[in-house]
Amino acid sequence: xxxxxxxxxxxxxxxxxxxxxxxWEEGWYVTVLDxxxxxxxTLIADLVGRARFRFVRGDAASRKDVxxxxxxxxxxxxxxxxxxxGVTIADPVRTIxxxxxxxxxxxxxxxxxxxxxxxxxxxxxxxxxxxxxxEEDDDNLYAPPHVRRWVxxxxxxxxxxxxxxxxxxxxxxxxxxxxxxxxGYGMDDAFPRRVIPLxxxxxxxxxxxxxxxxxxxxxxxxxxxxxxxxxxxAAQVPxxxxxxxNVGNDEEITIRDLAGKMLAIGEELGMVTNSPGWRFVxxxxxxxxxxxDIQRRxxxxxxxxxxxxxxxxxxxxxxxxxxxxxxRDQGLPRAxxxxx
Length: 340
Ligand SMILES: NC(=O)c1ccc[n+]([C@@H]2O[C@H](COP(=O)([O-])OP(=O)(O)OC[C@H]3O[C@@H](n4cnc5c(N)ncnc54)[C@H](O)[C@@H]3O)[C@@H](O)[C@H]2O)c1
Fold this sequence. Notes:
Layout: E1 5-9, H1 14-25, E2 29-34, E3 53-57, H2 63-70, E4 75-78, H3 85-90, H4 92-113, E5 116-122, H5 151-170, E6 174-179, E7 182-183, H6 195-205, E8 209-212, E9 218-219, E10 222-223, H7 224-236, E11 243-247, E12 253-254, H8 255-268, E13 278-281, H9 283-287, H10 302-308, H11 316-330
Parallel strand pairs: 1-2, 1-4, 2-3, 4-5, 5-6, 6-11, 7-10, 8-13
Antiparallel strand pairs: 9-12
Helix pairs in contact: 1-7, 2-4, 4-5, 6-8, 8-11
The structure holds nicotinamide-adenine-dinucleotide.
């Protein structure tokens, strides 16, 4: 697919920067649209100014900026979003407005010029559904709208619906990818308070890792390279249009075991000498009182394997080693607490 043109909204962010880099390395012409300040550009700084790479500082919630960045794109990868449950709880109005305005501009511009759209959704849309593994056609289970915890899931779900409607109504090739807990070097820990970046920071500072609850809750973490592989496959496989796909890794681990594994790898890599261990905290301590945790979240990858030919290739051990090695050698990629 080299020589093709991609627009990546949110392309200066964590997953977007890996995606933009991979596309660029594969020969695509890549335009990144991102509203980040200069500090937020760290992850793609070396690409800015190179041939076949264009950076547009702008707002996906502005029609004009989307038109400029997406002009001539074969595929628009739409990742720009207010991200993470913590941030969205703090400002639901901004979350809803930013995300809905952005997806509508992306879909309209794509429709006018015939681009494909790959939309990055989230495993959070399944809500509290107590089912393992989660399949694409499963129900979404949320508390009513006055409970702000689910605003992120709700808005992602609406964005998905708009993608499906544009496919049904206008035949626009839209594909939804639902990410399950990505990780890797450069993931922002400041507001979303995602567990792997939080643990990385504690390791770097020699503080005990804070395990929420009794640590028996599980997650399935996916190394960012695998997320990117799944996202590009979604753009490449014609039968994917009009459908949603789980993208992640189905290897499941408790948060307590994750803490143990990261401490062991940190020691092996010489990042910690006197192991700080871990301590238990309540969800309220870390995420605030409105947070509602989920006991297990594991993707079914059957459909992604069958239709996209997707297979995660990086084990949790290997991915954590790569991530921690990068933090050890390169330090923090950007200032903590940058509001984005
Ligand atoms: N990281 C994960 O595990 C995960 C899980 C589920 C879903 N997702 C989704 O994947 C996408 C990327 O997530 P990430 O972890 O890389 O997040 P991130 O916060 O690192 O990146 C998001 C980027 O979008 C940009 N952005 C936000 N609103 C914008 C706007 N209106 N105009 C232009 N740029 C804007 C931000 O500046 C940022 O660079 C998001 O849509 C997120 O909801 C991520």
